[in-house]
Amino acid sequence: MITARLSAEDDFDGWRDQCRGLLRIGAKPEDVIWQVGDTPTDLFAATAKLSAPIGPAIGVPPEFVNLARSVICHTDPKRFGLLYGLLTDIKARRRRMDDAADPVLRNLHDMAKHVRRDIHKMRAFVRFRRVEQDGAEHYIAWFEPEHHIVRTNAAFFVRRFAGMQWSILTPQISVHWDRQTLHEGPAARKEDAPSEDVIEDQWKTYYGSIFNPARLKVKAMLKEMPKKYWHNMPETALVSELIKSARGREVSMIEKEIVPIAADTLASLKSEANRCRRCPLYAPASQIVFGEGPENARIMFVGEQPGDQEDLAGLPFVGPAGQLFNAALAEAGVDRAQAYVTNAVKHFKFKPQGKRRIHDKPNVGEINHCRWWLKREIDLVQPDLVVALGATAARSLTGRNIPITANRGQVFESIEGVPVLVTIHPSYLLRLPDAQLAEQEKAVFVEDLRQTKAMVERASAQGARTPA
Amino acid sequence: MRFDPMLGGGSGDGKLLKAIWDELNEKPATYLDVPLFRTYMERMTQLQITEKLAILADAAKYDASCASSGTVKRSSSKTGGIGSTEGMGICHAYAPDGRCISLLKILLTNSCIFDCHYCINRKSSNVRRAKFTAKEVVDLALNFYKRNYIEGLFLSSGIIKSSNYTMEQMVEVARSLREDHDFRGYIHLKTIPDADPELLEAAGRHADRLSINVELPTRAGLAALAPEKSQDRIEGAMGGLKTSILDGKDAKKKYRSAPNFAPAGQSTQMIVGADAATDSDIVRRANGLYDQFGLRRVYYSAFSPIPDASAVLPMQRPPLMREHRLYQSDWLMRFYGFAPQEVVDAAEPNGMLPLDIDPKLAWALKHRAQFPVDVNSAPKAMLWRVPGLGTKAVQSILRARRWRRLRLEDVGRLTVSITKIRPFLIADGWSPGGLTDMEHLRAMVAPKVEQLELFA
């Protein structure tokens, strides 16, 4: 028995040198024990020690060298012996490499294929995370390759990320690039790498968005991205959810066209509206503030948009303006519990100013996006009269700009054809600096509200709609 | 860094901050959270980018191409820049739709002044619109690239203001990546046919690949579904690109320092299943495009139902398998020596390729007189035509048979499966006998209905 020692698992040069010596002494493949590192694993190890380099260079076909370079990186401990066996065969029969159908050669080709695939997948699936150290960026990745490929593969990352300082940590070794030189370090643990990177959210967003739910091909995905790589790839966290929702998303893409979304109760309409992304206002707001009131209400009050307190409470007209509104309703003898109260825009639009969130008027685009929901509310409640509180509500309901001071107390028609009485928004009263003027204006407001009550009573007397 | 009111901002005015803090503490907490507000604008900016990304990546997903291969080799090791291309593209992730994610594929904007029926971004569509600035795209691409998420950028865009304005913005993204950031990764720009030649020239200098979509397989289809686009203008622009690409190659041969012009060539895409074109029409058109414009690739995108679709379109998607069969036929013409007419011959009388079997098998079943083929003596071109033998397997057979007579099991080791091949092949110790001419052969060799067809 002869022991041939190699310095590392992927020590191709060492293997080649040992082979030269072995061939010179005519060692048979079955008589050689291959050993990596210094610790002898075999009792006979010391019997015949070879000193490298031994023997002259040997001529072999270049494709054998290519094959051997790949196979050496494989984890199979038999690889050194198998390659040496093939080498002795080649010395006897030069054309041996051409016989692709030979089982031994096939086996080695398969091993080489696995290694090449692992190399390729490492290039594909390494994920760097950025950390800042002393003002400099450092990109660090944790990767678990299947075969001994890290050294071989480091050159790729140097070519690609030459201008970056990076490290790739693996359970076997770690490699570090400082923009000049490649350094090799000891084995690392997963905890040595950073656990997050802010950009990963954007990457996940991209991954989820680029996926086309109309074409689900899970097998094809798994074939190229086997699960063993998943735990080091941030985007794979989304996969199961994307698959689960795919069919539903596709169906909804189609159904959206055929049947308009058909919520048939205010509750289901509200839950639909919760998911509204028609305009960007949903993002900074705490929650949607949907309308409130009975489905058979005969009066509908439409304000502008929820304010700060409404946004937190999730209910319309509960802040200062809401309290004033309640007082005026009481004075006019209108029962708010019998009315449907909502807003033209359902999310709180604001500008942050220091510690406060300052009300910001919704623009026409936002009003129009939200009109969809208002229309659904009107369709479901079917009020006899809608009261537009302020210019925004009037604009939304009628689709026109109506100056309030000149037109308050007058009745217009909504886009749906429902009568709309226009009046001021209660917050207007809060903004009046002169207390006396505010009192006068409030009286007029109460008068407008009384008028609404009278109109609805007249309407029901004429049998416009049977009270529930 | 979070703002800590107890420590102050380091500017020595800790007292003032303490006062503010005390005042804040008297009021109910909730949104009056100072640290939160400190980063509000920051968070909003990132949020806006993420949100735009969701819209503009979503809008780009209908584009089939994600290839990043076939360009010149570049690396950043000499310049200390960022990025490399190695000839072969790398798929950095796979989506559950089985498609490779190799490039950051986004639109600069999904607003568009055109109204093409098959397109989700058409003027009359009710989708949310968003627009990136050139700098935002550049930052996004670099951020992704540096984390090894992508091979590069595939930028497309809806047309805003004018073709030239839009093209200028796209060229600016590519220019900034190349010149300001020394980016050496892959760039694919979707080119707008009506833009000025100078802009296309600039695009070609920075990008690896340019593409112009022919959109639909037939002139009539284009006229019906994309009334503002014209086949003549599209083909005119493709012709212009072809000339520039060839000129660039010539110059490169004479002077090594000559600038590259779209070294990965040009490609195009057509939508399958939105109009009445048959597979035969599509195969003929694709072949014409390859010949006429020297295209690297023709991509097929199975029309998928899009939100807010136009009423002119079919509501049903074509079977995914159809797209796959078209790609297979494309391969037959490009790598297996099939003439376009032969691929058309493989189609059914209605002009459609069979969905249950691949076009090569379909062709072989119709031309059984040419089989069986002797694996030990047949010429390469004939081996290519054997169903189930790929170009690699043929290569191995040619080499191995110089060395020994091949038996059926030898062939089996070189291919994935032998069942499909057996009836068409003579090997040492194997002859299919009457198998080749059997009536039920199709049923025997057709794959058992199992996987993808279910989804079709």
Describe this structure in words.
The complex is a heterodimer of chains A (468) and B (456). Chain A is of the alpha/beta class. Chain A has helices at residues 12-24, 62-72, 79-92, 103-125, 150-160, 199-210, 218-224, 239-258, 266-273, 308-313, 320-332, 364-381, 391-398, 404-407, 426-431, 435-461; strands at residues 2-6, 32-36, 129-133, 136-142, 166-169, 174-177, 182-185, 299-303, 340-343, 350-353, 356-359, 385-389, 411-413, 419-423. In chain A, helix 2 (62-72) crosses helix 4 (103-125). The longest helix of chain A has 27 residues, at 435-461. Chain A is elongated. Mean pLDDT of chain A is 86; it is low at 41-49 and 256-261. Chain B has 456 residues and is an alpha/beta fold. Chain B folds into 2 domains: 56-334, Alpha-Beta Barrel (TIM Barrel); 359-455, no CATH class. In chain B, helix 9 packs across helix 10 (320-335) and helix 11 (340-346) crosses helix 12. The model of chain B is unreliable at 1-21, 23-39 and 450-456 (pLDDT under 50). Chains A and B meet through helix 4, helix 5, helix 6, helix 7 and helix 8 of A and helix 3, strand 1, strand 2, strand 3 and helix 4 of B.
CATH-scheme architecture of the largest domain in chain B: Alpha-Beta Barrel
Q: Which series of helices and strands of chain A comes N to C?
A: EHEHHHEEHEEEHHHHEHHEEEHEHHEEHH
Low-confidence stretches of chain B: 1-21, 23-39, 450-456
The CATH topology label of the largest domain in chain A is: Uracil-DNA Glycosylase, subunit E
What is the arithmetic mean of pLDDT of chain B? Answer: 82
- If you average the pLDDT of chain A, what whole number results? 86
Beta percentage of chain A is 5-15%
The largest sheet of chain B has its strands arranged as 3-4-5-6-7-8
Number of spatially distinct domains of chain B:
2
**Count of helices of chain A?**
16
Q: How many separate helices of chain B? A: 16
If classified by CATH, what would the architecture of the largest domain in chain A be? 3-Layer(aba) Sandwich
Radius of gyration of chain A: 38 Å
Q: Structural class from helices and strands of chain B?
A: alpha/beta
Q: Please report the first level of CATH classification, the CATH class of the largest domain in chain A.
A: Alpha Beta
Largest sheet of chain B: 6 strands, parallel
Which structural class best describes the helix and strand composition of chain A? alpha/beta
